[in-house]
Amino acid sequence: MKRLIISDLHLGSYYAKEAQLIDFFNKNPHFDELILAGDIIDFIRVPVFTQRTAKLFAFISNFPGKVVYIAGNHDLPFKSCIGKYMFGVHFTDEYEFVEDGKKFRVEHGDRYEKGIIHKRSLMNIISVFQDILERAFDWNLAAWWQNLFQKKKQARRIWDILEWNKDVDVFIMGHNHQPEVLIWVNQQEEIKTYVNCGDWTDHCTFVTVIDGVTRLKKFE
User: What's the alpha-carbon Rg for the chain, to the nearest Å?
Assistant: First the structure.
């Protein structure tokens, strides 16, 4: 089984790497399962869709294997679709599977974040202004915010996330745009793995799970 896990495309936003995504999908067509781990469409800003966006939507809708869409905090409208199958896509809030004797769980990761991110109306207002500033001044505010504030608390948050997901062998998420892998052995001498998919506004990274082997990769 060959699975592709990708998150935080933020289609419609100013920094979405649509051309690179099209190139990536054209060069990586042979997967049995496509797992979209949230923030695929950036609804909470002022999304601008292009012909490239249409090509990406077409690729997803015509994907020959199973497509799983995990709703994130930027594509909240899809929360109402959780548990449904529409347009060839399975909508959910998390996705689990077992491969090679290991249990995998994939989430977006926004539920582990505290603060204003869960105040929907306020986040909509902030995101609209963010979108205006990014388009006007070519300034990637999301990347600036991550580098300035989020990295300082990342290590502590990872261990909290792992404690909440200790029933799985491999936990995969997106959300914070920081591509990284953490592997350790717990007290029961079980190998555990944390993976963050990164994003397609800055890093162009993705995760593959092929016959139970997990890899974080960057598309050059």
Answer: 17
Answer yes or no: pTM beyond 0.85: no
pLDDT for 111? 86
- Residue 39, CA distances (Å) to 23, 44, 99 in order: 20, 10, 26
Cα–Cα distances (Å) from 169 to 97, 184, 215, in that order, read: 11, 10, 14
**Are the CB atoms for 92 and 36 separated by under 8 Å?**
no
**Mean pLDDT for each 10-residue chunk of the chain (220 residues)?**
96 91 90 95 85 92 93 87 90 95 94 66 62 67 61 64 89 92 86 94 95 94
Q: Residues near 80 by Cβ (< 8 Å), separated by ≥ 6?
A: none
Q: Which residues contact 7 (CB under 8 A, 6 or more apart)?
A: 36, 37, 38, 39, 40, 70, 72, 108, 173, 174, 175, 197, 198, 199
Bridge partners, residue 181, by sequence: 195
